[in-house]
Amino acid sequence: MTYRLYYSEPSAAMGVRAILEEIGTPYELVWTDISSPTWRDPALLAANPNGWIPVLAWENSSIYECGAITVLLCDRHPEAALAPAASDPDRGLFLQWLFYFSSSIQVAYQMSYHTERFCAATKDEDSVRQRSARRLEEVWQVVDDAIGENSWLLGERFSAIDIYLYMLTTWLSPKYGHPVIDRFANVQRVATSAATRPAVRSVFQPD
User: Fold this and answer.
1) Burial of 108 per CB tally in 10 Å (0-12, 13-18, 19+)
2) What stretch(es) of the chain map to CATH 1.20.1050.10?
3) pLDDT category, 43, cuts 50, 70, 90?
4) pLDDT at position 36, please?
5) For residues 77 and 25, is the Cβ–Cβ distance under 8 A?
6) Distances from the Cα of 116 to the Cαs of 51, 68, 123, 159, in angstroms?
7) What is the structure's pLDDT at 206?
8) Which CATH number fits domain 3-80: 3.40.50.300, 3.40.30.10, 3.30.1370.10, 3.40.50.720?
9) pLDDT reported for residue 180
């Protein structure tokens, strides 16, 4: 079986690709144009009517939403040890951060990068962007405090959620007034460690 990943750079699909690399399972990239705010490939819309990536397809099935894809891949490939099993005490914490990243943090970024979705009039876009920057400070501080002196989000245990964290830190941009990662020393430490993994480097820092 070979997975097919609807893919573009930069996008959340990069995190899914890094997880596929960690697993070591065969996959194909379906390069996808998402640059236009109005046009989407009919094949993408058939897989995800929202018109966004990532979408993961295999055999006669497909799934969208980065968090959902992460859980699916981890559960389908337990040999990769990228997530606690359902009976593991850390499973709840893994899911907590996965949902926090996919809802609170990604939405905060969307307020910067897709401001028009959050206001009814163009005149309000600057206010939304300012709120986005403040919100990113708030949500990343929550993560930083939770990490504390741990090596990874789940303590001393690396997981797919650390890849997700690293991906999200790469979206911080001074152009939009986002906080610099140096303000969150614990987040920066985890992100730096995740960035050294061969699977992550192959996606985010290719030679």
Assistant:
1) buried
2) 91-197
3) confident
4) 76
5) yes
6) 16, 25, 10, 34
7) 82
8) 3.40.30.10
9) 97
Q: Is residue 90 within 8 Å of 83, Cβ to Cβ? A: no
DSSP 179: P
What tokens appear for 1 in the block? 């079986």
pLDDT score of 51 = 87
Residue in the block written with tokens 């609807």: 6
Strand partners, 63: 56
Residues 6+ positions from 206 with CB-CB distance below 8 Å:
none
For the question of whether the overall pTM of this predicted structure is more than 0.90, the answer is yes
| CATH domain 91-197 topology | Glutathione S-transferase Yfyf (Class Pi); Chain A, domain 2 (1.20.1050)
Angle formed at CA 153 by CA 149 and CA 158, multiple of 5 degrees: 110
Residue pair 102/67 in contact (Cβ under 8 Å)? The answer is yes
Q: How are beta strands 55-58 and 27-31 bridged, if at all?
A: unpaired
